[in-house]
Write a structure and sequence with these properties.
68 residues, alpha+beta, three-stranded antiparallel sheet, 3 strands, 40% helix
Length: 68
Amino acid sequence: MSINTEREIEANMQIGPTDTGMVRIFIESQGIEVPMDFAPEEAEEIAEEIRSAAAQARVVAQKSQKKR
């Protein structure tokens, strides 16, 4: 399995602060719940990685559209 392998699995994701000052990413799929807690600084690093990946994905999408 890799980042480019598509799956037919649906999942719900929630992101929010906890009452202990952490940021929780909560994923639920097919009866499995995965709560992941991060310090605010770690959450900001994750957000930066997501922004970077989104920018890279835009470049790939634009190149793909130009080839058509």
